[in-house]
Design a protein that fits this description.
Strand content: 15-25%
Largest sheet: 6 strands, parallel
Shape: globular
Number of helices: 7
Number of strands: 6
């Protein structure tokens, strides 16, 4: 994940000093394209899949997921996840105040300094436009898995990092 973040920011013209990861997990970065109309359904599906994965790893309700969105999409994503019956069995934090929740829907500024087992990153190109530091923060919050969902092209460097 750190290699992917460093490569992506470097390609955007913002070199990042070399950082050594605490762990190296093969396959920890995945990116899935979707059509704009399927962005929310794809997000709900990914959250459900990763929540079930974490249930298997840590037991029911164990582990955390952050859905990190561009600022412009945060409200829509929050509302859609809260309204989704597919996620009813897990707690969702949309205000940034309930650290005991399984799922956290936040923007990159709210994610700064936090860690989550899984990060589902929505539309990284839009987050890069908000600021390169925002994208770096968003990409480096997971301890196990960074899963990117995008309907626009990935930022330069991110496509190669996935391979």
């Amino acid at each position: 994940v750190l290699r992917a973040a460093s490569k992506t920011l470097g390609e955007a013209g913002f070199p990042v000093r070399s950082v050594r990861p605490a762990r190296d997990i093969s396959g920890s970065f995945t990116a899935r394209p979707t059509e704009p109309k399927n962005l929310i359904p794809s997000t709900i599906s990914a959250v459900s899949d990763w929540a079930r994965f974490l249930d298997g790893e840590y037991g029911p309700g164990g582990g955390t997921i952050a859905v990190i969105t561009p600022e412009a999409l945060t409200g829509q994503v929050k509302d859609s996840l809260v309204d989704s019956s597919a996620l009813d069995e897990w707690s969702i934090n949309t205000k940034g105040t309930d650290v005991s929740s399984r799922i956290h829907v936040i923007d990159s500024a709210q994610a700064k300094g936090l860690e989550f087992d899984v990060v589902i990153l929505i539309e990284p190109r839009e987050i890069l436009v908000e600021g390169p530091g925002n994208l770096y923060v968003a990409m480096t919050r997971p301890t196990r898995q960074l899963h990117v969902i995008h309907s626009t092209p990935l930022p330069e460097g991110m496509e190669e990092a996935e391979n």
